[in-house]
Design a protein that fits this description.
Chain lengths: 381, 151
């Protein structure tokens, strides 16, 4: 049966009477003249803090680093894009990179990874990744690193990209990037289950299968825990019952004539009822702009800081709190901390593509669940 | 938005709202509470909706947030003895079981598309995820279902 034929509504019974009654009672009980909260321009629909690192399991045409970063082809960083066209293959698998970009602080590139023989399961992991000989970190989000192929993408193809913070000390005219991708193939035939089931896994192991579940990790016997699904790196392929082959890719990007990162002027803290917003850091490069905002609750305690997220979330908006069309590349919560003056706060760091079409002044804002928007305007140019 | 429009929209969308709530909470009584709560919240926040054409995505977003909060409370307070009785059987219990076993991050986008006919862009707004992530999750959900149904 194909999924297209499935009527998913059949998985639900008709709306029970008491649910229907609850809905209609609530809807009819509302008062026309009840005060509405502060008027906001569709704030509820604002795309919240989102990690860009999306993965597409079906190859699409025109996938390149700009598509991965969601930078408009006429955006500020597009002039830095270098076509790299790197291909490598082994064990019926291939990795392809079309283009890459660096501003001297960040490196980004697209990738398409494919297992051309989906009947043969291969575990891929990045065994080595360097820039000018210095180790780089895979971003680890929706990645081919530590994934089975085909795994969850049945046709064996994944498309995504990497956005990597370059280590300090990378110098020279050229950034030389090298990556070694290990391909680990089980010796025994593979039995793949969609969801890990210990009992079934044990039975299949006894039948001589190498069991995998959900496209991630390994099914292993652990002392005191029995058969479990583990996630991580293959360190000793022969002990794991696997053979290893590898794909190597390398490309160069110019580091000459790049602008230095520019620190932006930090505005005065924005004091709102119950919460003060204050920038800690603001920096822009040709590729991306990074802002770190402190959220300082009026009630000065660690818990008040820690639970600030119970009331809302941080995102970028216009200075009046309205929606801003911006390519958020990453968002990270820094955790509760105590400032030198004794106040407790939470921090949040947002990175977004540097884009000359953005307004000169924007805001990293706290959107409360009640619909209010606490703004903290900052000039980004 | 006036009350007449609001009541009419809720009435029209009852089944959709129930399915979404049930997909998250898996319990009718919890659904009834969450649905009521979400509708009252929606009315209170009605001025945040600028264009009525977005009512469906806007309300769905409020409902999903409400259900997720309700579920957190369920997890915190439910002991094993208090686990609710399962609801009456749906028309296709096997499909219901498969859906309930699917991770929520795949299940919700799949339902919003397959049952509720939302576009990728609408689901992206409702779930506050990039559209490409929504596409990826729906693709994964369909592969998951296909595998399970074929098995």
């Amino acid at each position: 049966m194909k999924h297209e034929e499935v009527d998913f509504r059949r998985a639900f019974r008709a709306t029970p009477e008491h649910c229907s009654a609850a809905m209609m009672h609530a809807a009819r009980s509302v008062k026309e003249d009840a005060p509405a909260r502060r008027k906001l321009p569709a704030a509820i629909l604002i795309a919240a803090i989102m990690m860009l690192m999306m993965t597409i399991a079906v190859a699409v045409e025109g996938w390149d680093v700009l598509a991965f970063l969601r930078i408009r082809p006429d955006g500020g960083a597009s002039g830095l894009v270098e076509p790299v066209t790197v291909d490598s293959d082994a064990a019926a698998c291939a990795i392809r990179i079309e283009s890459a970009i660096t501003d001297g602080t960040w490196l980004a590139f697209d990738w398409t990874v494919e297992n051309q023989d989906p009947s043969r399961h291969v575990y891929m992991q990045v065994d080595s990744f360097t820039g000018n000989g210095m180790p780089l970190s895979i971003d680890g989000t929706d990645d081919f690193h530590c994934q089975w192929f085909p795994g969850w993408c049945n046709d064996g193809t994944m498309q995504n990209g990497e956005l990597v913070l370059l280590p300090e000390g990378i110098t020279g005219d050229v950034l030389h990037v090298e990556m070694v991708v290990g391909l680990y193939t089980p010796v025994r035939p593979v039995y793949e289950m969609a969801v890990f089931d210990a009992e079934q896994a044990r039975q299949k192991q006894q039948e001589g299968y190498y069991v995998i579940a959900g496209g991630d990790g390994f099914v292993k016997e652990l002392p005191e825990e029995g058969l479990v699904q583990c996630f991580g790196l293959v360190r000793n392929p022969s002990a794991e019952g696997m053979t290893r082959s590898e794909m190597k890719i390398a490309f160069d990007l110019p580091l000459k004539n790049l602008s230095e990162p520019c620190a932006l002027a930090l505005p005065e803290p924005a004091v709102h009822e119950g919460l003060t917003l204050q920038y800690r850091r603001a920096e822009t490069t040709q590729l991306q702009t990074t802002l770190t905002l402190l959220l300082i609750p009026a009630e000065n305690s660690r818990d008040a800081a820690k639970y600030v997220w119970n009331d809302g979330y941080v995102t970028l908006t216009q200075t009046d709190g309205s929606w801003l069309d911006v390519n958020v590349l990453s968002g990270e919560n820094g955790g509760a901390e105590q400032l030198a003056d004794g106040r407790w706060c939470e921090s949040y760091t947002l990175s977004f593509a540097t884009d000359p079409q953005l307004p000169e002044t924007i805001s990293m804002s706290f959107l409360r669940d009640d619909g209010t928007v606490l703004v903290c305007p900052i000039k980004i140019r | 938005m006036d009350k007449e429009f609001f009541v009419r929209e809720i009435e029209l969308r009852q089944d959709m709202l129930y399915r979404i709530a049930y997909a998250i909470l898996q319990n009718d009584d919890a659904c009834a509470d969450a649905l009521q709560d979400a509708i009252l919240k929606a009315w209170e926040k009605r001025n945040t909706l600028r264009e009525e054409q977005y009512f469906r995505t806007w309300l769905t977003r409020i409902l999903i947030n409400t259900c997720r909060r309700a579920r957190m409370k369920q997890r915190r307070f439910l002991s094993i003895e208090e686990v609710p009785e399962p609801s009456a059987q749906p028309p296709d219990p096997t499909l219901a079981l498969l859906l309930s076993q699917m991770p929520e991050q795949l299940r919700l986008p799949l339902l919003l598309q397959s049952c509720e006919g939302m576009t990728y862009a609408e689901i992206s707004q409702v779930l506050q995820l990039p559209e490409s992530t929504v596409r990826g999750r729906i693709h994964r959900a369909k592969l998951y279902m296909r595998k399970e149904l074929e098995a």
